[in-house]
Amino acid sequence: MCQRSIKKERDILFTKEDDICSERKLTQQEVGELRHKVISCYKVSPKRGSDLLEMLQTDVLSTGCYGIDELLQGGLHPGEITEISGETATGKTQLAFSVTLTTICANKHNKVLFIDTVSTFSAERIRTLFLESDRFDHSREQGMEEDDVMNRIRIAKCFDVYAVMEFIEDMRDHLENKEKDDNVYTNIKLIIIDSFAAIFSPLLGVTQTQGHSLMITLTRILRNLAKEYNIAVLMINAAIASKPNNPISVFSSTKSKPSLGMSWTFMPDIQLYLTHCIEDKIVIKENEGENNIQQDYVYTNRKKIEVIMKPRICEVLRSRNGQMGKWCIFYMGGNELFTHYDIL
After folding, report:
1. Which residues pair with 270 in a beta bridge?
2. Signal peptide position in this chain (predicted)?
3. Which of these ranges, 21-35, 123-137, 310-324, has the smallest mean pLDDT?
4. What DSSP letter does each residue of 50-101 carry, written as one string?
5. Cis peptide upstream of residue 244 (ω within 30 degrees of 0)
6. What is the C-alpha to C-alpha distance for residues 232 and 221, in angstroms, rounded to an integer?
């Protein structure tokens, strides 16, 4: 559709067939095939309740951080879209790398697809995390090697929304066509897009309806793909200013909010927001009975090297299935990531 400059589903579904053929220089057979593909993306297939329950119990993916897993009711759920947004330098991409490695190390067959829209993916950083972080010590002891880990991560460089949509459609074609002799997309358990905001922010505005339509369309395509093939989706979003503060946040000092506007707000299944842990937020936690929170925590790793860990806050802004307003404190520094409860 992108190659033929067809930007919206309604252009192919509700325009007369003769008009499409003449304007887009397509044959009637090609129009029919395009309509069939669009309809198949939105079709609803019934599932047994027992299958859904088994999926929830067995296929949840850990983020590698106990506190964040609790907020997510166990971790990233297949068939659902999880958004992580937050202020600059709060660890969004670092957390995405952590989820990537945790998923890979959980099962020797698991694969992760990382769609990089802003050149944030670093193979060297992933390699260093696996080799140096104490969190993956058990996997290394079990004989998992860095080559195996890196071979099960698929990276796609897509710098605009049309490239992402084309790539997702190609992925669906490969998954549907069982006869294709390749294993590029088999056993994909997690799709990460970093950053979702980068490909849509230039297209959004009061008078730019096409950008909002494309955003909703891509999200629906991803959700259908995730549900059909039992894949969890993680989207990394940016933050924008919110004056005088963010009314949804449980902290009055939060003066930012997720970007992409109101049309995006209710698209993900759960919306996590990361902020820097400042003094008044720590006081709130102390008033709830936990007074051991530190601004900086010095962690000594297995090599006896001291690592300075900085606290961050992760809170649930919105959730379809869980409780909003819940939050946790986690520490990040060097190659390590853990929650407040891990150091009590």
Report:
1. 82, 319
2. none
3. 21-35
4. HHHHHHHHH-PBP-S-HHHHHHTTTSBPTT-EEEEEESTTSSHHHHHHHHHH
5. yes
6. 13
CA 37, 153, 117, 321: dihedral to nearest 10 degrees?
70
Q: How many CB atoms lie within 10 A of CB 276?
A: 17
Q: What is residue 191's predicted lDDT score, i.e. its pLDDT?
A: 97
Global model pTM greater than 0.85: no
Which residues does 235 contact at the CB level (< 8 Å), separation at least 6? 81, 82, 83, 84, 192, 193, 196, 268
Angle formed by the axes of helices 161-176 and 209-229, nearest 10°: 20
| 81 vs 244, higher pLDDT | 81
pLDDT confidence tier of residue 159, bands split at 50, 70 and 90: very high
Domains of the chain: 1-43 (no CATH), 57-272 (3.40.50.300)
* Pairing assessment for the beta strands 111-116 and 297-300 based on DSSP bridges: unpaired
All residues at 6 or more sequence positions from 213 whose CB lies less than 8 Å from its CB, including other chains: 7, 8
Calpha distance 98→102 (Å, rounded): 6
Local confidence band at 229 (pLDDT 50, 70, 90 cut-offs): very high
pLDDT at 136 over 80: yes
Average pLDDT over residues 115-131: 94
- β-pair partners for 190: 112, 232
The amino acid that residue 275 corresponds to is: T
